[in-house]
Amino acid sequence: MTDQPAETAPLRVAIYGSCVARDSVDLAGGDRFDVVAYIARQSLLSADHDASPHFPAEAQISSDFQRRMMFGDFLGDLTPRLAEVASTTDVLLWDLADERHGVHLFEDGGVVTRSIDIVNAHEALEIVDGARHIPFGTDEHFELWSAQAGTLRDHLVDLGLFEKTVVLRVPWALVTVDGRPTPWSMGTNAKQANAAYHRYFERLRELGFEILELQPLGVLADPEHRWGLAPFHYTQDVYEEIVDQVLAMRKNPAS
After folding, report:
1. Can you give 137-183 as a three-state secondary structure string?
2. Sheet hosting strand 103-105, strand order edge to edge
């Protein structure tokens, strides 16, 4: 009897980001990925900037998942979360989707992401609206974020995760699969968002991060997406392309 080749073990994936990375793994990864951590709805600027004393414990939050993500953001727990899974992670997928609404800076130095969960929770929104909003794409936001990106790189190097990190540079889709312009998202359209994101990705390139990049004309938004129509909710082929490229990168890592 001929021996059968052993099945390839799934890649152990830690996700730092939101819908782009998570949907790629869920919708196209199949049994090729095993998610060991999901750190969502947390700007890089909230990392290590504890705002937990401001957390609205009585807020009406839709799900336990959303409450955990919101509290993690208030806590600024990105670094310890990554440290917990560093030894069991084959690839860290990082997308910048959750940067898009900026952050709120409290007088005591705490930082909170202006996430969709906060916007939808009245008690949380009241609290963060008492702090100073730093919008995404402004010079102030970029300068703070740029410095924090360098700090994260150092942390990833120390954890042995830097060479395992793949940044997903997937532009917001300009049009849907049926040719209609994609809708605005909280005051921003796809063209504006892609322009604003440019220098953030270029900063990561300067820092030596491995970047998986798709082109604007190669991505379309799906009106039938499970999370609804948005410029960052793509057609299935986009997720398939991301997964194929991630797998190829892991087989042939950059030198």
Report:
1. CCHHHHHHHHHHHHHHHHHHHHHCCHHHEEEEECCCCCEECCCCECC
2. 111-113, 103-105, 132-134
Question: Residue 186 burial by CB count (10 A; 0-12/13-18/19+): exposed, middle or buried?
Answer: exposed
- The answer to whether residues 69 and 118 touch, using CB atoms and an 8 Å cutoff, is no
Tokens found for residue 166: 């793949």
pLDDT tens series, the chain, 255 aa? 444 444 688 999 999 998 999 999 999 999 999 999 999 999 999 999 999 999 999 888 889 999 999 999 999 999 999 999 999 999 999 999 999 999 999 999 999 999 989 998 999 999 999 999 999 999 999 999 999 999 999 999 999 999 999 999 999 999 999 999 999 988 899 999 999 999 999 999 999 999 999 999 999 999 999 999 999 999 999 999 999 999 999 887 764
Tracing tokens 């395992």 back to the chain, one arrives at 164
Q: Residue 39 pairs with which residues in a beta bridge?
A: 16
Paired tokens of 5: 């080749």
- The DSSP secondary-structure symbol of 216 reads G
Domains of the chain, CATH where assigned: 11-251 (3.40.50)
- Tokens at residue 7, please? 């099945």
pTM, rounded to two decimals: 0.94
Residue type, 194: N
Q: For the purposes of burial, counting CB atoms within 10 Å of the CB of 135, is it exposed (0-12), middle (13-18) or buried (19 or more)?
A: middle
- DSSP class of residue 31? G
